[in-house]
Amino acid sequence: MTHSASIASGSACPSQVSDSDEAEHSTDHGSIAQRMGRFSRWALAALACLWLALCTAVGPIYWADSSIASWSWFQTLTLLGSFAVYFSMVCALVRFGRGQRIIPLTWLRTTRASLASRLQASSQANSQVSKICLAIRRFFTSRLWVGMKTACSRILIQATNRRWKIALILCVGWIWIPTTLLSAYGADIRSQMREFSWAWNQWTGVHQPYIGFFSFVPMDIYPTAHYLWPESSTYLTDQHNIVLTIVHGAVAAASRYLTGSNDWGLVTLSAMQWLFAILCCSATLHRFLNLPWLRREAVFATPSPFGQPEYSQALELIDPTHPERGYRPLTLECRTKKNGSALLPAGPIFRFAFLPFFLFCPLVVFSTISLTKSPLFAFAFVWWFGIGYELHMTSGLHLGTKRGLRKRSFIAMLIATCIMLISAKYAWYILVFQLVLFLIADRKRWYVYVITTLLPVIVIHGGIALMINNGSIISGDPIESRGIQLQQIARIAKRNPSAISSSAKARLSAVFNLDQMAEAYYPQDADPVKSSGIQSKKVSYRWRSATPEDLEAFNKAWLEIIKADPVTATDAFLAKCFGYFNVFDQPYVAMNYYVSNDYVQQSSTWIKYQFHDWRNTISEDAQQWGEIPVLGWVTHGNFYVTLTLIFGAAEVILRRWRTLVWHMPLLLLMGVMITAPANNFERHMLPVAFVFGCMALTFWRESRPRAACSKAAL
C-alpha cells in the first residue's frame, strides 16, 4: 500500500507515532513537570544563543585590546541583535523539526499578496518587465529545465552511490595537494624529530647532556617540569603524543639516513595522511549519503532508476504518464518508529553541498597534508562519527528492530578509536564520557562499545601511563591545561599589578616569575606565558625548579588574584576564547599557515625550492577568500562551530536525546577549544567543521517525515 493510500485510509504517518515531541503536546501537556521541562530546554537553548551573542559583541572590544569595562551601547545593540538572529535560527529549526512551516502560513499569505500587488503594479507600469518575468517563469516550468535538472540529479547520484566512487572523486580533486604543496608542517613535528633523534643517539651510545641550567634539551623547548623527569635519562615525552613522536621521528630519521635530509620523510608522512583522509571522508560520506546498511532491507516500492536497490525506495516518477519529467523523493516511503526518521539515501542537493566543501574548503584541503596532531585526529573523528551514525540508525528506532554492527564497521570503529587516541591526548576523556552515554542509551549492544572504545582506551592510554610510571617516557606537563589561569594572572599582572597581594606573589614565586609573565602576556595565546617555544623565549615558568606542592600553592594564588580583580580576569578568559564562537573573527592561526611558514619555505632542505611561489600564492588566496565578509565565513572553523551549537540547541528543544548522545562529542570538543592555549586556533575546530554537514543531514532526515505528514494533512 502506498503512503498516499495509507493517509487516505487513516493510517498513522511517521510523525503521528507517539514520541517525546508529540507527547509534550498531548492532553496533559499542562502539567507542571512538562512545563518545567519545556522551560528548561528553551532556557538552555537561549543560554547557548546568549553565549554566541556575547562572543560576537565583545569582538570589537578585544580587537582593540580593550576591556569589557568599556562596554558601550554599540556592544549592547550587537548583543541584542546577535541574540535575536541566533535565537530566530533555533526557532526556525524547531518549527522545521516539528513539521511546521518555518514562516507561519498567515505571514506567507500576507507577503504573497503584497508581492503580487506590487508585481501587478510594476507590470502595468512596465510591460517589458512583465514579459521578461513571464519568460523566466515559463523556462523554469518547461520540459527543458525539468529535463536538465533531472539529468544532473541522476548523474550526481550515480557518481556518488558507492564508496569507491566518492574516494575516486576525492583522489582526483585532491591530487594537486601532495604533488604541488608536497608537505605542510610547523614547529611541533620539528620538536618530535628532535626528541626522537636525541633518544636514538642515547640508544646508540652517543653521550648527550641530560640536565643543566644553561643547556636546553628537547623537553625544555616545550618545557616539561623537571620534577616529572625520571631518574634515568630519557628524551622521549608525551608532550606531542608519544606514538606520533616515534612514528614521525622514525620516518624522518630514516629519511636522513637514506637521503641526507628530513624532507623526503616529511613528504612521505604527508602522502600517508592524504590517503588516510580520503579513506575517512569517503567512508563517512558513503554512510551518510547512501545508507549502505539498508541494502538488504530495501523496500522495492518502484523500479530502481539506477539499478541500485537502495534507491528503489527513494524515488518515484513525478508523472507516470510523462516519464521525461523525471523522479522525485518518496517523501513518506519510510519505516520509522519513535524518531520518525526517513531512511532514505540523500538527494542531489545534499550531495552537491558535500562535495564542494570537501574539495575546495581550505580547512579540508590544507589539513590533508598538515603534519600536526589535530588534522589526523579530525579525520579519524570523521570516520568514527560516521560509524556512530550507523550505530544510531540501526539502534531499533529506525529499522524497527535492533541490528548488530557490520563487521567492516566494527573493525573500522576500532581502528578509528585507536588513531584518535594516539593523535590527541584529550581523546580518551571524550571517548570514556561517550562510552558511558552509549552504554546507557544502547545497552543491548554493550559489547560493541566495550571492544571498540573501552579496550583501546585501556591498552593505549593505559600503556602510555605505564611507560610514564616506569620512566620510559616523560609525561606532558599539567601546566598545558592551565591556559585560562595563566592568562588571567598574566593579564592582571600587566594591566592591574596592584591587585596582586603579597601573599599571592609569594605563592606564585615558586612557579612563575610574575614580571616575566606580565611582559610575555599576549591576549590571543597562552604559550608565551608558559615559556613554550624556542630558546629566546621569556622564561616566566620556572619549570626547572617547580614541584607539585608549588602547583597547589599556584591554584590558591590564582583564586585570590581573580577575586581581587574579576573584571580583568573575565577579560583574559573571553579574549582567549571568544573567537571560536564569533563568525566575524579572523583565525589567529589558519590552516594555510602550515603550508607557507618559514619552517617549510626557509628551513627545509629542498622542499623550499619546489613550488615555492605557488605555495605562497595558494596560502594568500585562501587568506583573501577568508577575509571576504560573509562569503569568507565558509572557510573558517568558527562558522561551523556556531552552526553546530545552534543545531544542538534545536535538538535539545525537540528532545532528540538519542541523537544528542551521539552528538555529545561535538560539545566536548568545544570545551577543548575553550581550554586550548590559543584563541580561534583553526586546527582545534577541524573535527566540528568536517562533520557539520553530516549533522545537518541528520537533522533534515529526522525532521522530514513530520514535514511530509504535516503537508499531507493540509
TrEMBL record:
<feature type="transmembrane region" description="Helical">
    <location>
        <begin position="42"/>
        <end position="64"/>
    </location>
</feature>
<feature type="transmembrane region" description="Helical">
    <location>
        <begin position="660"/>
        <end position="678"/>
    </location>
</feature>
<dbReference type="InterPro" id="IPR046062">
    <property type="entry name" value="DUF6020"/>
</dbReference>
<feature type="transmembrane region" description="Helical">
    <location>
        <begin position="446"/>
        <end position="468"/>
    </location>
</feature>
<keyword id="KW-0472">Membrane</keyword>
<feature type="transmembrane region" description="Helical">
    <location>
        <begin position="684"/>
        <end position="700"/>
    </location>
</feature>
<protein>
    <recommendedName>
        <fullName>Beta-carotene 15,15'-monooxygenase</fullName>
    </recommendedName>
</protein>
<feature type="transmembrane region" description="Helical">
    <location>
        <begin position="349"/>
        <end position="370"/>
    </location>
</feature>
<feature type="transmembrane region" description="Helical">
    <location>
        <begin position="166"/>
        <end position="187"/>
    </location>
</feature>
<dbReference type="Pfam" id="PF19484">
    <property type="entry name" value="DUF6020"/>
</dbReference>
<feature type="transmembrane region" description="Helical">
    <location>
        <begin position="376"/>
        <end position="399"/>
    </location>
</feature>
<feature type="compositionally biased region" description="Polar residues">
    <location>
        <begin position="1"/>
        <end position="18"/>
    </location>
</feature>
<feature type="transmembrane region" description="Helical">
    <location>
        <begin position="411"/>
        <end position="440"/>
    </location>
</feature>
<feature type="transmembrane region" description="Helical">
    <location>
        <begin position="70"/>
        <end position="94"/>
    </location>
</feature>
<keyword id="KW-0812">Transmembrane</keyword>
<feature type="region of interest" description="Disordered">
    <location>
        <begin position="1"/>
        <end position="26"/>
    </location>
</feature>
<keyword id="KW-1133">Transmembrane helix</keyword>
